[in-house]
């Protein structure tokens, strides 16, 4: 599904140039659950932004679903992104002014789904995430664990092939964190490919494979289990 070869990304300010990704290469197959680990500043978020088609690399190639997307412009990237990729962030990134239902409905509006079908799909995913009883609440009225369940509902409502999760349990206690990891595992078992950045060895154990990074490069890879 993903083939990255010699990926490079630089950040330039007037005085200095930071190498965020230094000829990084790896592959992720459809159905895999991959964890990415490494110290602060090693380039994990930069990598996730490129894989999520939110940013473009300065060198190397990126193949997504057999398409070379390395030089896609923003319009083409956005189109591919909204149909194929769901995002889950550490800080949930829900819109405070919208209800639970409206937050989850938003990606369906972007992809042009009609209201009746939107209602059906949002309700189905809220049921699945066991948050239906809070459908008319606003994010601030929910616990952290509930907010992350809403964020996962929003990430999956368009049935993306790929979920990118950036420290999804970073703001949760261990019981809510485990619940989120169980949800991600369940989605993976149903066929969704997952790439998760984490600082937690505990969370990384839910994955099939751990890629460890240092200074913008891959240093090791541990295979834990085979993907289904
Ligand atoms: N917008 C930016 N401008 C300048 N430098 C940046 C920018 N974004 C990231 N960097 C630098 O690029 C390098 C990689 O950053 P990145 O955020 O990808 O690391 P990370 O592994 O995700 O870190 P963390 O675990 O702390 O989130 C760091 O040295 C960082 O300071």
From TrEMBL:
UniProt cross-references to PROSITE patterns, sorted A to Z: ABC_TRANSPORTER_1 (PS00211), ABC_TRANSPORTER_2 (PS50893)
Matching InterPro entries: AAA+_ATPase (IPR003593), ABC_transporter-like_ATP-bd (IPR003439), ABC_transporter-like_CS (IPR017871), MacB-like_ATP-bd (IPR017911), P-loop_NTPase (IPR027417)
Keyword ATP-binding: yes
Entries under CDD domains matching the protein: ABC_MJ0796_LolCDE_FtsE
Domain of life: Bacteria
Keywords from the UniProt entry: ATP-binding, Nucleotide-binding, Translocase, Transport
Sequence similarity: Belongs to the ABC transporter superfamily. Macrolide exporter (TC 3.A.1.122) family.
Protein's UniProt name: ABC transporter ATP-binding protein
Lineage, broadest ranks: Bacteria, Pseudomonadati, Bacteroidota, Flavobacteriia, Flavobacteriales
């Amino acid at each position: 599904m993903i083939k990255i070869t010699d990926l490079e990304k630089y950040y330039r300010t007037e005085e200095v140039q930071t190498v965020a990704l230094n000829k990084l290469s790896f592959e992720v197959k459809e159905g895999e659950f991959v964890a990415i680990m490494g110290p602060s500043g090693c380039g994990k978020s930069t990598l996730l932004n490129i894989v999520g088609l939110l940013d473009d690399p300065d060198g190397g190639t990126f193949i997504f679903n057999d398409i070379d997307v390395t030089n896609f412009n923003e319009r083409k990237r956005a189109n591919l992104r909204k149909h194929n990729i769901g995002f889950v962030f550490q800080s949930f990134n829900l819109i405070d002014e919208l209800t639970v239902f409206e937050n989850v409905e938003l990606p369906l509006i972007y992809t042009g789904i009609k209201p009746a079908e939107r209602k059906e799909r949002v309700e189905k995913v809220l049921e699945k995430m066991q948050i239906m009883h809070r459908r008319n609440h606003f994010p601030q009225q929910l616990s952290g664990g509930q907010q992350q369940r809403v964020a996962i509902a929003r990430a999956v409502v368009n049935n993306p092939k790929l979920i990118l999760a950036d420290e999804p349990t970073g703001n949760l206690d261990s019981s809510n964190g485990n619940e989120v990891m169980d949800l991600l595992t369940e989605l993976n078992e149903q066929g969704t490919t997952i790439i998760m950045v984490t600082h937690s060895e505990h969370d990384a154990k839910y994955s099939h494979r751990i890629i460890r990074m240092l200074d913008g490069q891959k240093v090791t890879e541990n295979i834990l289990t085979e993907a289904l």
